[in-house]
Amino acid sequence: MTNEELSRNSSLLRSSTIGLGVCALLWAWFVWRAPIDSMQGPIQKILYVHVPCVLGAYLGFALTAASGALYLWRRDERWDRLAAACAEVGVFFCTLVLLTGPIWAKGTWGRWWTWDLRLTLTLLLYLVYVSYLLLRSFTEGSERAARFGAVYAIAGLAVVPLNYFAIDLAGGRTVHPENLGRGSLGAGMGLPLALGMLTAVMAFAYLLVRRLEVSELRAALDRAQADAARSEM
Amino acid sequence: MNALLAVLWKDLVSEWRSRDRLVAMGVFALLVVVVLYLAAPPGAGPEARAHVPGLLWVAYLFAGVLGLNRAFATELENEALSLLALAPVERGFIFLGKALASFALLLVVEAATAVAFALAFDLDLWPVAGRLALVAALGAAGLCSLGTLFSAIAVRTQYREVMLPLLLLPLLVPVLLGAVRATNALLLEGTLPWPALQLLLVTDGVFGIVSFLTFEVVLDE
Amino acid sequence: MSLVLRTRALEKRFGPLVALHPLDLELAAGSALAVLGPNGAGKSTLLRLFAGLARPSAGSIEIHPEGGSRSFRRRSVGLVGHASFLTPTLTTRENLVLAARLFGVEAPGEAAARALAAEELLPVAERRAGALSRGLAQRAAIARALLHDPKLVLLDEPWTGLDARAAARLSQRLAAEKGAGRALVIVTHDLGRVVGLAERALLLVRGRAAWLEAAAVRDTATLEAAASAAVARMESAR
User: Fold this and answer.
1) Whose CA, among A10, A108, B111, B119, lies 20 to 30 Å from B72?
2) Hey, are the CB atoms on C14 and A141 less than 8 Å from each other?
3) Residue C131, Cβ neighbours under 10 Å: how many?
4) What is the pLDDT of residues C156-188, one digit of tens each?
5) What are the CA-CA distances from residue C62 to residues C5, C37, C77 (Å)?
């Protein structure tokens, strides 16, 4: 890697770390100070983690598909590295959603799982993520993996709105709390939630930067190894 | 267009000569019906029978995936796939030819399976036969479009037989839910709900377009 | 004399591995180019790039350099690969009709019949392609590749597995096609066969190309010597 690449990377890392640190502290403070929900009790606070993670999960997939499409258009490997990184970060957030959701659900509705619209949608997203990552790892040849991954991610993204209508049709609009629109939140809950969303974005960016760093290092290592192997012969 | 018909003809003629895909799909679907009946015999009341249409689509899905797995496997012999990739046409037409061939085979299997299903679960399908065929066709179209795309992808990965269902099933949910809803309504109430049809039509359209356009890059080396 | 193929800085990478370093090349109608080199040098990759089966990582390829979209490019190229590209369950004739229809040839049935006759395949026309011997399959592959009258014909080790008579037949056919104005690119290890056919030779070693001088292609011994010398030179130049 060139010197300017290295310094650009470390300044990017520095700023995303600082951004994340600041947001996370602010957010934690306001979550701690937020009022306890009268009906649900303290377990409601897990939503300040759950909802932002949902943002991360869906954002991650949209970015994966978009980067994949850009790779197909531009054929620049860097778009593919971005797509792979977004998928890995996104699946992490999706896992958190599927872990925090049931914890909250058990605490409030008394059930670990229900097949309502949003849970099912997110579960399907998770499966698509996992299939995407498996596809990439089982395809031989990085160029082919990039191409196939991009096609799959685009198809996966196209399915999300279709899934929404499909599950709705099958009667999935049952137990999940309705959209957190204006006024449906109790007083004092809006700010920690908004901060949570911001923190999620910051966390996503931070993890993405670190992951990209790893893949760039790996690519540089591969190049160096390939050169070394060739000059040895 | 010529290329589409050429590919369709090739697949159908090959299939007619060996009949291996058709037989495999058909026998497998029949086995699934038997297993489903043994595993979940329907009770007497209408609520108990509400799940039965879903089981039919389970059988269709399994048969479809089995057939699609074979769609590109034969192209690997003698690298016949490269010939398709070499054709100086929009590769989406190659996709259409292959998808239509799978579609035709699946329709035949679906018809036979429906008969077996009616016998096993003691259903009277005659009054809704036409509309059921429509739903079955719409479902098969969605299945075969994405299925052909992913079959072309899966055939060049390791664990290719596992890869196809892994890729395909999470994305088939709209097709499955729409088709089951429609079949349910047909069998229990004799009506064909428009929202379900609409979902199937839109899904088939989206899948068809995505597959047609992306097939271009899938057939590259 | 018109150009059939031109590449500018044509490059192919697979991740970090450079399969083909930037290559400039021009090929005129009625000429033949031999591509030589050790295994794994990137010769097959080069052919697949020319054929339009793989996309370049950088640089450009122009076929019949009036440009045009990729579908037109593939129209002017015929490829004979390692495998025959024949569908085993169809007969030889049906395979050729299929290829004719895929490549937009008019009157595909008659075109297939002509192609069968040209390669003397009529006796096996109704035999399933899966039952053809290597030699017959190769001839069918050549018939298939030439069916749509391509200006550029690419051959990947075409003499492999052929007996002496079939190999001589092939050399004759290629010479005739060259005379008819087609451009040929032939990847081969069989230096003896390509000597009478090609005017130029390109040596590929681990993705790097070196042109051999025209005089070297005059006879087998000279070609072998020139090729070995060039390989040694390239290996040591690290």
Assistant:
1) B111
2) yes
3) 12
4) 999 888 888 888 989 999 999 999 989 999 998
5) 6, 24, 11
- Round to whole Å and give the CA distance between C82 and C188: 11
Out of B146, B196, B217, closest to residue A155 by CB: B146
> Which residues of B are less than 8 Å from C86 in CB distance?
78, 80
Q: What is the rounded average pLDDT of the residues A60-80?
A: 92
The set of residues, in sequence order, having a beta carbon less than 8 Å from that of A37 and lying 6+ positions away, is A44, A186, A189
Q: How far is B174 from chain A (nearest CA, A)?
A: 5
Give the closest-approach CA distance of A140 to chain C in angstroms: 11
The more confident residue out of A66 and B78 is A66
C-beta of residue B106 within 8 angstroms of C-beta of residue B144: yes
Take residue C43 and report the two structure tokens written for it. Answer: 């010769």
In the block, which residue shows the tokens 């329907």? B42
Q: So what's the ipTM on this one?
A: 0.90
> In terms of Cα–Cα distance, which of C218, C225, C183 is closest to C203?
C225
Query: How far apart, in whole angstroms, are the C-alpha atoms of residue A152 and residue A136?
Result: 10
Residue B77 and residue C52: Cβ atoms within 8 Å? no
The number of helix segments (H) and strand segments (E) in chain B equals 10, 0
Of C73, C82, C90, the CB nearest to B10: C90
pTM: predicted TM-score of the whole model, two decimal places? 0.89
CB B103 within 8 A of CB B144: yes
Q: Torsion over CA of A101, A107, A110 and A115, rounded to 10 degrees?
A: -10
Annotate chain A with DSSP letters as a single string: --HHHHHHHHHHHHHHHHHHHHHHHHHHHHHHHSPPPTTT-GGGGGHHHHHHHHHHHHHHHHHHHHHHHHHHHH--HHHHHHHHHHHHHHHHHHHHHHHHHHHHHHHHTS-S----HHHHHHHHHHHHHHHHHHHHHHBSSHHHHHHHHHHHHHHHHHHHHHHHHHHHHTT--SSSPPP--TTTSPTT-HHHHHHHHHHHHHHHHHHHHHHHHHHHHHHHHHHHHHHHHHHH-
pLDDT digits (tens, 9 = 90+) for C75-125: 889 999 988 899 999 999 999 999 999 998 889 999 999 999 988 888 988
